[in-house]
């Protein structure tokens, strides 16, 4: 009986053990290679973070144009090698300014520590088009290769899966109809880099003293030119006529009138807010100063040359994309002075050397 039982025992299934070990070795190899690939990607991202350049963006545009967030997203679509900061001593500053609605004009000024600012000007049919152009120019200033998208990170190769079971020969489908090739989309081209000169017109009212015995109240008009250079100069040509209330001198009444033209030059504007601009200006004026007497025997009038130079500060506020108001306050020094008297020997007015002025203007930016 012992011999019969020994012959009826079935040997253990030793033939399946090598297959289980091979499968475990196979999946272990795949897991190790996946961990190596994940570590490579993380190291690449950390290296990219160290290459980010901190940049401060100063953005000035009309209300209907895209905001700063939209502009930064368009720049990041071109390049990711920067980070926007609010301040920094050693960071570059990108000053972006847009004026007008249709057509629109824009400028990009890049200023770095210890470097001379560089300005580029652009023109476009719409505000959205000029924002896209400025975003493209800013991306190129950050990364010269921004026009080319970065290549995707390479992953380690995975062993091919085992061959599938043989399948029946496929049935060839009928040939599809011929399709026309899809036209290739042309690459976006920047708008021509051409400098532009902005202009504005407007009217103003002002008061000055003590040029005459009483305050001189005036009205005038002006025209401006804005030049796209590093210091952003503005030239204003203005004409004004001003007169004073009558003054009693004895039995006579005396009136003063001043008619002149003025040339003002402003530069290096400071923008405390998006729609506010503060500028320092120099001023030169030339014209005629006239005194007239009434209610006196043999009353006459006298006209004298008016020449003066001075300095003023101007604060401008944009109420709308193309409409602004500004206020100015300053001092003038008379280069030509006269004393006015009634004969016989009645003093009317001794013109001082220094006089003050205050003016308020309403203007419009021309397209």
Short description:
19% of the residues lie in helices and 45% in strands. The chain is of the alpha+beta class.
Task: Explain what the structure shows.
With 367 residues, the chain is α+β, with helices and mostly antiparallel strands. It folds into two domains: 93 residues, Rossmann fold (3-Layer(aba) Sandwich), CATH 3.40.50.10070; 168 residues, Beta Barrel (Porin), CATH 2.40.160. It is 19% helix and 45% strand. The protein contains four helices and 16 strands. The strands form three sheets. The protein has an eight-stranded antiparallel beta barrel with strand order 6-7-8-10-11-12-13-16. Strand 6 and strand 7 form a beta hairpin. Helix 3 crosses helix 4. The protein starts with a helix and ends with a strand. The N terminus is likely disordered.
List the helices and strands and how they pair.
Blueprint: H1 2-8, H2 17-50, E1 53-60, H3 68-78, E2 82-84, E3 92-99, E4 104-111, E5 118-124, H4 127-142, E6 198-209, E7 216-226, E8 234-243, E9 247-249, E10 252-273, E11 276-294, E12 301-320, E13 323-334, E14 339-342, E15 346-350, E16 354-365
Instruction: Extract low-pLDDT stretches.
Output: 1-8, 14-18, 191-195
Provide the CATH top-level class of the largest domain: Mainly Beta
CATH architecture of the largest domain: Beta Barrel
Mean pLDDT: 78
How many strand elements?
16
């Amino acid at each position: 009986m012992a011999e019969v039982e020994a012959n009826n025992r079935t040997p253990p299934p030793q033939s399946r053990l090598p297959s289980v070990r091979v499968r475990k070795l196979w999946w272990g190899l795949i897991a190790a290679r996946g961990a190596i690939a994940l570590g490579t990607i993380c190291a690449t991202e950390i290296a990219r973070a160290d290459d980010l350049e901190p940049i401060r963006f100063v953005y000035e545009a009309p209300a209907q144009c895209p905001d700063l967030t939209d502009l930064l997203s368009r720049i990041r679509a071109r390049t990711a090698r920067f980070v926007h900061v609010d301040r920094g001593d050693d960071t570059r500053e990108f000053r972006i300014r847009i004026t007008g609605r249709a057509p629109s004009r824009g400028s990009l000024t890049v200023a770095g520590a210890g470097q001379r600012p560089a300005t580029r000007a652009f023109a476009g049919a719409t505000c959205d088009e000029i924002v896209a152009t400025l975003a493209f120019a800013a991306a190129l200033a950050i990364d010269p290769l921004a026009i080319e998208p970065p290549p995707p990170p390479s992953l380690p190769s995975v062993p091919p899966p085992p061959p599938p079971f043989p399948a029946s020969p496929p049935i060839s489908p009928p040939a599809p109809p011929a399709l026309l090739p899809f036209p290739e989309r042309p690459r976006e081209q920047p708008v021509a880099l051409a400098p532009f000169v902005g202009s504005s017109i407007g009217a103003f009212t002002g008061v000055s003293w003590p040029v005459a015995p009483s305050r001189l109240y005036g009205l005038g008009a002006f025209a401006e030119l804005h030049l796209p250079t590093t210091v952003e100069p503005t030239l204003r040509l203005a004409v004004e006529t001003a007169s004073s209330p009558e003054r009693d001198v004895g039995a006579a009444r005396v009136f003063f009138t001043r008619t002149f033209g003025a040339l003002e030059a402003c530069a290096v504007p400071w923008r405390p807010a998006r729609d506010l601009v503060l500028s320092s200006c120099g001023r030169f004026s030339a014209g005629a100063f006239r005194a007239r007497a009434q209610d006196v025997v043999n009353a006459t009038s006298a006209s004298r040359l008016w020449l003066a130079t001075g300095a003023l500060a101007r604060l401008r506020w944009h109420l709308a994309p193309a409409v602004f108001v500004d206020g100015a306050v300053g001092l003038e020094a008379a280069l030509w002075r006269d004393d006015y008297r009634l004969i016989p020997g009645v003093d009317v007015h001794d013109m001082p050397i220094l006089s003050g002025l205050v003016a308020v203007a309403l203007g419009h930016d021309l397209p």
